[in-house]
Amino acid sequence: MGTCHISGEIDSAVRLSRSDFEYIKAIGRGALGLVWRVVHKKTRTELAIKEIEKNSISSKEALLSVLNERSLLSILNHPFIININFAFQDKKKLYLGLDLKLGGDLRYHMIKRKRTESEMKFIIACILQGLEYLHSRHIIHKDIKPENIIYDDKGYVFITDFGTSTIWKEENYSETSGTPGYMAPEVICRQNYSFTSDYFALGVILYENIIGTRPYQGRNRKEIREAILEKQAKIIPSDIPVDWSIEAVSFCNKLLKRKPNTRLGANGINELKSHPWLNEISEKMLQNFELKAPFIPSDNDNFDHDHVNFYSKCERHQAKTTKHDFLGYSFIPSPASNRKIN
């Protein structure tokens, strides 16, 4: 699919509606709705639409997450994140138009098998491109996990889901939303945190693919917190699989440091990018999408359609929102913003 500046083709004065799009199939599922592959009927541009049912937003926290994602995406635009193309609403749903990537999420592919070292090296190099941009805008993602890493059809990956992301501030110990299994110790223990919390989550993903389990496990946030406080997770030499290198394990262990000031990246993201494990990745070629990915998703569906059935059966809560909560949600970037669908 070629590049298309959809924001320049859709008149900002025109009110978008669901009927402007041809729905092809579901390609993802979020906490509050499905992500669909669609075609804009007028321009014939393919993209993704994330639908959120208003009556599924049953708490203030969920409402803030939805509004936060729309607000942050409107000021972001980078090749290694899933960018916004527009947003609109009707009486029942919110609609978020996003870049279309058809390779499925990292979790889907990890369920099939653990990633190889070369695959994880490439994946993390891609994620670092996105994180470097976000951190340069003073934004902490706060929910880096396999479900939020999306493949395209060439094997490159992109960061998505900015519902819990936040603009960094010195006093943020009370803002602890995210996924417990990937939360940095300083976040789960309700201490002030910074950009290194995203690097810890990277370490969890890498550990998961080397060892096969997450470094800190538990049935809930309390149990995971207790596991973190009990001991420092570390891959020891005798546990290194035969097809993984010492450099990969070094990178992982340094990301998992419980104290953020000793964690790889404490002095900036260049500590990660310059680690020997990533030496063979040409950053310039990566940025230009000139490298061949070690894993390319198949042309078949890269989404478990049982997710659609699961979502359709989920219990609906009575809405605790009003129409006034969504004032200003609709959004179409100006052509000057140069947003595009690849």
UniProtKB/TrEMBL annotation:
Keywords: ATP-binding, Kinase, Nucleotide-binding, Serine/threonine-protein kinase, Transferase. The keyword Kinase applies. Residues 21-278 form the Protein kinase domain. Gene3D superfamilies: Phosphorylase Kinase, domain 1 (3.30.200.20), Transferase(Phosphotransferase) domain 1 (1.10.510.10). Its EC number is 2.7.11.1. It is an enzyme of class 2 (transferase). GO terms for molecular function: ATP binding; protein serine/threonine kinase activity. SUPFAM superfamilies: Protein kinase-like (PK-like). It catalyses: L-threonyl-[protein] + ATP = O-phospho-L-threonyl-[protein] + ADP + H(+); L-seryl-[protein] + ATP = O-phospho-L-seryl-[protein] + ADP + H(+). One of its GO terms (biological process) is intracellular signal transduction. It comes from the Eukaryota. PROSITE patterns: PROTEIN_KINASE_DOM (PS50011), PROTEIN_KINASE_ST (PS00108). This is non-specific serine/threonine protein kinase.
